[in-house]
Amino acid sequence: MLGKQVSTKLIAAHLKHYGWAKFQVIEDTAEMTVIHTGWRSDLDDKVPHNLSIRVDRNRSVMLFKVPQLASAPPESMSPGRLADLLMAIGFANFALALGRFSYDPSDGEITFEYGFPFHNASISPEQFRHILDAFTHTVGYWGPRVNDVCGGERTGETVMESFIGHARGFSS
After folding, report:
1. How far apart are the C-alpha atoms of 37 and 34, rounded to whole Å?
2. Does 1 have pLDDT greater than 50?
């Protein structure tokens, strides 16, 4: 087993160290740890988010995932709005250096996840903090935009234009 140095105790200590005191260990075996927690973004997003941290020691990877970031069941969306949603998600994925948004057409669930390989090493508090910060800021920025597309308040094109303006220093 390669990733035995990334223990449940280590992840819990990192969470507590950075003020994430409310979490629940869902699974804790020699091969796998699953911890559930959450946060409320201080950016545009006012909705609390659930976060699942899965440590797979056999594969030496830690997966951070927000399930149900948004919901867009295909039977309840017009083809145009679904196309806008897929454009927005595709552009978000293009713009991101790390992580990805996913759309499950079977139930409409939209998720965001980021995998962090740790091989036969541990993860420092600084690395963990960097991952949490990048993850929460990404969800805080893109989450409201994806939700707006689901609700028809934005189109895929306006999400793309908004990001380009944001990248150039304009806010929208």
Report:
1. 10
2. no
